[in-house]
Records
---
Amino acid sequence: MDFNDTPAEAEFRARARAFLEANLTPKGKERESLQKRLTEREYLAAAKAYQAKKAQAGFAGITWAKEQGGQGLPPIFSVIFNQEEARFDAPSAPFAIGLGMCIPTLIAFASDEQKARFVAPALRGEEIWCQLFSEPSAGSDVAALKTRAVRDGDDWVINGQKVWTSGAHYSDWGILLVRTNPDVPKHKGLTMVFLDMRSPGVEVRPIHQMSGGSNFNEVYFTDVRVPVSQTLGGEGNGWTVALVTLMNERLAVGGSPGPDYREIMEFAREASGPQGGALLADGHFRQRLADWYVRAEGYKLGKFRTMTALSKGETPGPESSIGKIITANQLADITNAGIEAQDHFGIVTEPDVAAADGLFQQSYMWAPGLRIAGGTDEILKNIIAERVLGLPADVRVDKDVAFKDLPAGR
Ligand SMILES: Cc1cc2nc3c(=O)[nH]c(=O)nc-3n(C[C@H](O)[C@H](O)[C@H](O)COP(=O)(O)OP(=O)(O)OC[C@H]3O[C@@H](n4cnc5c(N)ncnc54)[C@H](O)[C@@H]3O)c2cc1C
C-alpha cells in the first residue's frame, strides 16, 4: 500500500484544490449548507452553474474517454477530486445519479448519435437524469418489477409505477427498466429504455420525508410512448444493462455526508454527561468513541487499499460493499448518540436553537436512507458473504420459472 500521491496525482490534487477554493465555500464556514439555505429552485441553479464551471475547468467526466468530452484519466484522479471536493459545500447532488449511473450506462449502450446528443449536455449540467428502477414490490429484488412495455409499431407503450425515484421531479430524462416479456424467467424478460420525463402520461408525485424534504418520488406511467430507438442494449437484455448501472451505483453511493467521530468528540467536550460533568469524561461514552475511531480508521485504510488498486490500474472488487455498511451504520450510531446526549432537547431540529446547529438531528433523519440506497445492509452482507468470503449462495428458487408463473408476477 502506498499512501503518497505520484507526482502527476499531486499536481492534479493541487489544481483541483485551487479550483475548489476559487469556486466553493469550505464546509462548516456557514452555519447551514447551501442546500438548506436556498430554495430548491435556487439550489438547482447553483448546481447547474457549478457543474458548468467544473466541465469548463476539466474536472467533469474525469475518467470518461476524451471523445465523450471527458478527461480520459485513470479512476484514481476521480477519487482525488472527490476527496478534495468533500471538504467543500459543493452543490453536486442533483448530478450524482445522472453522471454517476445513467450517462455511464448510455456511454456503454447507446448509439453514437445518441451519445453525441446526450453526454455533453449532461456533463455541462444542462440536463439532469434520474434512475427509474425500484417499484413498490421490487427493490432489492429489482428483477421482480412489473412495469410493462408493449411494442406498438416504432414505440414502446409503457404502463406501471416506480417508487423512490430520486430527483424525478426536476429531471429532464430518465433511464427506465421495464418488463417486455413475462413468459420467461424474471431476469430475462427485462428491457432498458431512456425517456423524456416530460412525455405525456408520466406523472411524478413527490414523497414527503421525515426530514421535511421531498427528494424522491412515485412516478406513474399511463400509456407512455417511448421510441423503440431509445432502447439500451436491445430488447430482453435489460438485466445486463441494469448491472452496469448498479455497479456504478455502488461506486457513487459511497461517502457518509454527516458527523463523524471527530465532530461528536468536539460536541462531547461541551455537552453534559449522564453523571454531570462533560460527556467526554463519561467512561461508557469514551468506549463508544474509541469504537467509532477504530472503525473509521479501518474504513480509511480499506479505502487506501482501493486507491492503491485504482492507482495501479486495477479494478476494486466487491469488498467496497464493506465501506458502505460501515459508514451508513456508523452515521446512524453517531447521530443517535448525539441526539441522546441532548436529552429532551434532542427533538429540536432548528439549527438556530439546537445544539451543534442541529447537525446530529438533520443527519439522523438521513441515516436510515443511506443504509437502504444503493443496496441495503442485508443485500451488501450477502454480496460480502458470497463474493468476498466465498460462502454458499443465497437460495434462489425462482431462477428458472417464467415471471408470469411467480406469485409476484400474477
Ligand atoms: C435515499 C434513497 C434514494 C433512492 N433512490 C432511488 C432511485 O433514484 N431510483 C430507484 O430506482 N430506487 C431508488 N431507491 C430505492 C432503493 O434502491 C430501494 O429502496 C432498495 O433497493 C431496497 O428496496 P425496498 O425499499 O423495496 O426494500 P426491500 O427490498 O423490500 O427490503 C425490505 C427488507 O428486506 C431485506 N431483504 C430483502 N431481500 C433480502 C435478501 N435476499 N436477504 C436478506 N434480506 C433481504 C432488506 O435488506 C430490507 O431490510 C432509493 C432509496 C433510498 C433510501
---
Amino acid sequence: MKEERQLIMLPGPTNVPDRVMRAMMKPIINHRGPKFEALYESIMENLKYVFQTKNEAFVLTSSGTGSIECAFSNLVNSGDKVVVPVFGFFSERLRETAVRRGAKIIEVPVEWGNAPTAEQIKQVIKHEGNVKAVAIVHNETSTGVTVRDLPRIGKITKENNVLLIVDAISILGGDQLPVDDWNIDVCFAGSQKCLTGPPGVAVISVSDKAWEAIKRNNNRPYYFDLMRIREYSAKKATPFTPAIPVFYALDEALKVIREESLENRFKRHATCAKAFYSGFEALKLTPYPKEDVRSNTVIVVNVPSKVNCEMVRQVMRERYRVLIAGGLGKLKGQVFRIGCMGIISQAETLATINALENALADSNFPVDFSAGVEAARKGFQS
Ligand SMILES: Cc1ncc(COP(=O)(O)O)c(C=O)c1O
C-alpha cells in the first residue's frame, strides 16, 4: 500500500524533518560505551542551550507525562502544599498527578481561555503559608493559552522560597522560556512537539534549589529517581536502557534548533501564529483564548455553530491530507486545535488555512473563499 504523507498540524506529534528521521537509522549501540557517551554529551550541550540554563538537564525515556511524574515524585510528598492553577485539560492532569503523590493541592481556578496571573499566585502563597511548590502548565495545549506572567510568577516563588515546577511540554523550543532568568526550578517537555523530534523521550531541567529538596526526599521513585539519573549522567550514561534511536533523533533535532538559533526560531513561530490568527479571523473563526494570552505554538479556535468538528477534521484529513486536532475534555467538539510547531513556515500555515477553508465549505459552512489565506499571506508580507 502506498504511504501517503500527511501534513501533521496537530499540537504534537508534529512534522519531523527527514534529517531527524534519518538519524534513527544509525545502528544500535551499546549504551554503556564510548559511542553513547559522545551522543549523550552532544545532546546535553544543546539541551542546556534550548532550556537557556546552566542547571543540569536530563533525557528520560518516556512521553511528556513521564517527566511530570518524575518531577512530582522527586519533589512532592504526602501532605506537601502544592499550588496548581487549573485552566484547562492539561493543568487538570497536572493537579491529578500531584494528588496521586498525596500532595495537599491548593487549586487556583482560572476560567478556561484565560491564564493565571502573578498576583493570584502571590495572594495564594501569602494566604496559605508553608507552600512547597507552584506547579504550572506554561502553555495550556487544550485552550491555546500561554501564561505570559510566568517571569513574574518566578520572581514571586523565588522571593518566597517556593519551588517552581513548569510543564513546558508544548512550548519549549517554540517560544521564549529562559529557565534560569525566570527562576524555574524544574522544567520539562516532550520530544514530539516544538523540539521537532519523534515521540519517545522527555527532557527535564533541575535547579540547585530543587536538588536540595530532592536530596531531602527519602521517598523517591525507582525508575525516575533524579539522584540516580544525575549520578549516571556524570558518566554520560543513563541508569536504564535508553531509547537509543530516539536519542539519535533528539540529538539531530537539537542541532537543527542550534543552527537556526532560538531567537530566529521564536520569531518564526510568532510570525506563523500571527498569520494563523489573522487568517482565521478573516474566516470569521474566533480564537478560543483571550487575546493577550494567545499561544504562539498551539492555535485554538471555536468551531462555528452548526459545524460538525469531527466531520470537518475528517474532510481535512481524507481530502486535503492535513491533520488538525479537536477539543479535549469539556471542549470536545467545540474547538479546532492546531500545532504551530517545529518546522512551521509560511507553506504549512497557508496550506492548513486553505484546507480548513475548503473543508468548511465542503461542510456547507458559508466561507468567504480565500479570505483566510489572503489575510495570512499579507501577514507574512508585512
Ligand atoms: C501541556 C501538556 N502536558 C502534558 C502532555 C502529555 O504529554 P504526553 O502525551 O507526551 O505524555 C501534553 C501533551 O499534549 C501537553 O500538551
